[in-house]
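Form 7-S
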Amino acid sequence: MQLDKERIERYLDQVASETTDLQLIMGKSDDDILSDRHIIKGLKYSTIVIAEAIASTLQYILAKRHNVVVDGYTEVFKKSKENQVLASELLDRLQPFIAFRNMLVHHYWRVNDTVFLKNLRDGQEDFRLFIRDIRKKI
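Output:
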């Protein structure tokens, strides 16, 4: 079945917009970010939006291009690897953000802000790589 490219672009636009916001904030020092709870909350919200948009993109491609139905965000990555939607290495690096999204949504108070910020700094370029690689595939 043919992909609705506009739908995918809407998901990718969400990832791009939130990633741009993240990068603006990431120009600050860790101390400045960690000392402002509103900034941390904003980063966490952006991470949730990015993770959901990535998972929705993959889920849609799996359903339409590979006729694969998934149950939940975690399974999206397993099935995406099996069906070679993207390189396994990139999927492996993005998958923890889905787990982190689940932790934020369901156990918000358990997230260590320092660890969160380090992981976000380390992984933010993968969001742009995701956009680039999906655009190549569609």
